[in-house]
Amino acid sequence: MDQEKQSHVSETEILSVEERDVLALARLGKKPILKFQGTDDFGNFGDNNFTGWLVICGWQAILAGSAYLGGNMIITLARLNHASYEPALWQGTLVYWCVMAVAILVNMYASKILPKLESFTLVLHIGGFFAVLVPLVVVCIRFLRMRGLLAVGRKKRKG
Q1: Are 52 and 42 in contact (CB under 8 A)?
Q2: In angstroms, rounded to a whole number, what is the distance separating the alpha carbons of residues 12 and 24?
Q3: What is the percent of the chain where pLDDT is above 90?
């Protein structure tokens, strides 16, 4: 009786998911690109899930901290430009939520242009680095020559 049941069981029913995927790819004449041994490859969070909760709380703290910092920067710029402006506490909370909403909306609706925007920002930062560095070096060399601390290219002749 057991032999009859085993004969009716196909080979794919006793294989694991990964083995079935490899078998299906082999039938198509392809090789598997990634080989996962299981979910433990991605990280073991332990039995009590403490690490998982720690990661979730950390992500929430980073998101809240970034929005808080951005909101405070906007309010500080407003205070610097208008000396008579004294922000109320609710305005700080409103700017915080606005910064959070802008970040969420940009990630939801502008995700297709984010790589181009990040590439442009990288080029802008590299260009800005040299735009600050070159004048700084030129002014530093002129200052040192003016003080007599740097005498490159000049030989004093006796006589």
Answers
A1: no
A2: 10
A3: 42
